Amino acid sequence: MNTPVITVTDTPDAADLAVIRQRLDQFNVEASGMADQRALAILVKDPATGELLGGITGRSSRGLLFLDMFFLPESMRGAGLGSRVLQMAEDEGRRRGCRSAVLHTNTFQAPGFYRKHGWREFGAIPCDPPGTSRIFFTKDLAQTT
User: Fold this and answer.
1) How many CB atoms neighbour CB 17 within 10 A?
2) Domain N-acetyltransferase: where (predicted)?
3) In whole angstroms, what is the distance from residue 28 CA to residue 127 CA?
4) Which of 8, 84, 101, 117 is deepest in the core (most CB within 10 A)?
5) pTM of structure
6) What local confidence, expressed as pLDDT, does residue 1 receive?
């Protein structure tokens, strides 16, 4: 075998990312015997225009719900919409057979929001800007809040 070419990029091609995902998924299926990974999105849209305003993205796999991104515009925060969207994601995880959920947030984002909803911190790693951390949370989905 020839020596492979290794490239570092901050603009990966979507097709390349798809190949890596597919190959990792195949490895995981062969190792675990489970092919249950599914994407998840809870989308918040403007009712008049259909414009996407925010929401949650993530996935479920092998009994875990992973929440990757959660965003709502500041004007939509504080009135219960975020709680409703998070609850919908947790409920969908339960429907998919997930026993636990995991996510991470930054100290300047919403750690208090997740604590308020029964999420438990299990680790933190200092990051930039100085004085902030990335906080890792988990939630037992067998427990309801």
Assistant:
1) 10
2) 1-142
3) 30
4) 101
5) 0.89
6) 81
The Cα–Cα gap between 126 and 45 comes to 34
The beta strand positions in 1-145, using DSSP E, are: 38-45, 52-61, 64-71, 100-106, 120-127, 132-140
Q: Coil, strand or helix: which one is 110?
A: coil
User: Per residue in 101-133, pLDDT tens?
Assistant: 999 999 999 999 999 999 999 999 999 999 999
Q: Spell out where 10-110 has E strands.
A: 38-45, 52-61, 64-71, 100-106
Q: Which residue has the tokens 């988990």?
A: 138
| Architecture per CATH, 36-140 | 3-Layer(aba) Sandwich (3.40)
* C-alpha to C-alpha distance for 74 and 48, rounded to whole angstroms: 19
The parts of the chain modelled with pLDDT lower than 50 are none
The confidence score (pLDDT) of residue 143 equals 75
DSSP state of 25: H
CA 32 – CA 135 distance, rounded (Å) = 28
User: What is the Cα–Cα distance from 90 to 135, expressed in whole angstroms?
Assistant: 19
Taking the alpha carbons at both ends of the chain, their separation in whole angstroms is: 55
Question: Which single residue is written with the structure tokens 């300047």?
Answer: 108
CA distances from 43 to 38, 47, 72, 123 (A): 16, 12, 10, 28
